[in-house]
Specification:
Keywords: ATP-binding, Carbohydrate metabolism, Galactose metabolism, Kinase, Nucleotide-binding, Transferase. The chain is of the alpha+beta class. The chain has 2 domains: 188 residues, Ribosomal Protein S5, domain 2, CATH 3.30.230.10; 170 residues, GHMP kinase, C-terminal domain (Alpha-Beta Plaits), CATH 3.30.70.890. The chain contains 12 helices and 12 strands. The strands form 2 sheets. Strands 1, 2, 3, 4, 5, 6, 7 and 12 form an 8-stranded mixed sheet that branches. It has a 4-stranded antiparallel sheet with strand order 9-10-8-11. The chain is globular, with a radius of gyration of 20 Å.
Amino acid sequence: MSYVSKDSVLHQFRDAYGYQATGVWSAPGRVNLIGEHTDYNSGLCLPVALEQRTLVAVALRDDQTVRIHSRQSDETYVGAVGEIGAGWAAYPTAVLWSLAREGMTVGGLDLVIDSSVPVGAGLSSSAALTCSVALAVNDLRGSKFTRDQLVQVCIRAENDGVGAPTGGMDQTIAMFAKPSTALLLDCQDGSIEHIPFDLRDAGFELLVIDTRVKHSLADGQYGLRRTQCTDAAAVLGITSLREATAEQAESLSDPILRARTRHVVTEINRTLSAAELLRIRRFGDIGSLLNSSHASLRDDFEVSCNELDVAVTAARLGGAVAARMTGGGFGGSAIALMRAGKSAAVTASICEAFTARTWQPPRFLHVAPGGSATRL
């Protein structure tokens, strides 16, 4: 797919507002290798930043007006600092609201957004947007917020401002990614470890399969899963499901809470095992972990869908070492890990399976682990 350039966003800014932006900032989308729905359970996850990024061109104003133009919607939002807009505008305006709550004098600004991160594909387009805006305003206002603090600002923007109860994985990878690595994130203490993930050097490819089935984390299902995990922890008398054991999971009398807990416990263990295998460059050996992760998300956490299941099965039939859904679920994307040179056969298998069901063909993205949010 095409990428958005700095020059393109600067031209868009000039066309929209009639003057030159002060600068351009960007943040990456992400794909999670393994560790799904574990972040808000104080667990472990292993995301990878994408080369696909959201870019924002920004200039400060000397009043309290906020103007934001989105290339994706071809609309311009106009409001005041502290107001949270509707739709796509909720995300950048919620960041300004969140920064103000932390004591920053935000002031007015003009902003243009353009992105190559697919929206609604489970690839964290929202965190790419919020993190690029937060970093830009922090830099332009000369604030001293650290990246750790900006992660919390962006989490609050999505959770409290937008009403999308995301965990902290997306914002953390956007702010701390390094090229050719995956990020092992411990959501209990916030610690991170960069795990080598040089796919080309290891002779592998990672393919993102965007099913084009749109999902929204604010539609209730994601929040319901969080509530069920919180309820399960309360029944077990623990702070979070990070502390649960397999025996405790099976002791729960409620079958739904038992299944949700089983997924979280086993997924954390799979993530630990995957990280250890990658440390010693045994890329192919993580296949069974990825496959088991999909089965757990489908059966125990119930966040898959027909399109994701078909994509995963077809990818494996086409020669992938492993495949699983990724992201919040209820649509979005899957990933397929394969030996180098197998992507044509894998994509053909998936497209054939979708065509047989008269579904729109998926969109494919080849993953090359990228870097963190930055000024361009």
